[in-house]
Write a structure and sequence with these properties.
two-stranded antiparallel ribbon, 2 strands, mainly alpha, 1% strand, globular
Length: 269
């Protein structure tokens, strides 16, 4: 996924990132990596990959258990299950270094229970019949929308992560071309489109609540901290002025206080 698209050495002229973002980062880092201290028996990547790799067989089991072979169930299996497999292939081809950090036992469990396991609940809601979707469009049109969002999001996420990974193997610095030519956080945009497709297919209030927490409490914090870190580059101000935060042509507040930040990120997706 995304570490900062630059090296991690910040010059002394950078100013602090917003206090709220620094506090949230310290909280999420403690809960997902350092909680309760003690031995660090596993990498954060192992916890994430367990959830990703387990999604397809779990959803298949739920379909068998609840005897649900509806088109919506099959499509959800194809979308969310295949996304997990795509993630595993991506991790083998260009793994995110930030996921290789060793975490405490409690930290890994927190990462799984506070975010990752809730993504499995999305599928359970639909397949178990707990959610009885009444889509605002005819089913075929709604399925088309969800499939399109998932495919588009997967393409954006993979392209952005691949560009960052291979570019930073050659040179360190600000990445301003490719997908980053237009938006500053294309990988997050891709992930948000993917999980929006899942939430729309389930059509229940709980996925909305979960995504509000993840996007607001984790993604937004990481994007703010990333921009604070990248602001140390002389070309940052010009780059920021000609690009968009997340969605092209969506108005945003320009300026603000840049500052240093750890390039690590912890979006547990």
């Amino acid at each position: 996924m995304d570490t900062s698209n630059s090296s991690s050495t910040a010059p002394p002229y950078s100013v602090p990132a917003p206090a709220w973002a620094q506090i949230m980062r310290r909280v999420t880092q403690y809960l997902s990596q350092d909680c309760l201290g003690g031995p660090r028996p596993w990498k954060l990547a192992w916890v994430i990959n367990f959830q990703k790799a387990g999604t397809f067989p779990l959803l298949g089991f739920l379909m068998w258990h609840y005897q649900n072979t509806s088109p919506a169930a099959w499509i959800y299996l194809a979308l969310h299950g295949s996304y997990g497999l795509v993630w595993m292939i991506k991790d083998l081809a260009f793994p995110d270094p930030s996921w290789q950090v060793k975490v405490t036992l409690a930290g890994g469990l927190n990462a799984f229970l506070s975010v990752l396991v809730w993504y499995w609940v999305f599928g359970w809601l639909l397949i178990s019949g707990t959610s009885q979707p009444d889509y605002p469009l005819p089913d075929p049109a709604w399925f088309c929308l969800c499939i399109s969002l998932c495919l588009l999001g997967s393409m954006i996420m993979i392209a952005a992560d691949a560009q960052k990974y291979f570019t930073l193997r050659i040179r360190r610095g600000l990445i301003t071309d490719g997908l980053h030519r237009y938006i500053r956080h294309p990988n997050y945009l891709g992930e948000m489109l993917i999980y929006t497709s899942f939430a729309l297919l389930v059509w229940h209030w709980l996925p909305v609540l979960v995504l509000t927490w993840v996007w607001g409490g984790v993604f937004a914090v990481n994007m703010v901290m990333k921009e604070a870190s990248l602001s140390r580059y002389p070309e940052w101000a010009t780059y920021k002025q000609r690009t968009w935060w997340l969605v092209p042509y969506l108005p945003e507040r320009r300026g603000g206080r840049p500052g240093p930040a750890s390039p690590d990120r912890y979006p547990l997706v």
